[in-house]
Design a protein that fits this description.
0% strand; CAPS; 3 helices; mainly alpha
Amino acid sequence: MELQLHVYQLKTLIKIVKKTYRDFRLQGVLDVSLNSKSYETVHNRLTVEEATAAVKSGDGLQGISMRDSDQEDD
């Protein structure tokens, strides 16, 4: 937890988590199963990392974000 992710790692993980979550929802997995403690932990960590990266670099992650999980980031 004390190590920060590199911006490239962060962008990649955000895309993977959002795509996986979206795909499972489309396949009919219940929200109770999707919003587990593990998912919440990963989501919170990526949100904190995203905020830290935005403060440090100033330009943010160039349109990639953990919010708006139903929107596609291309």
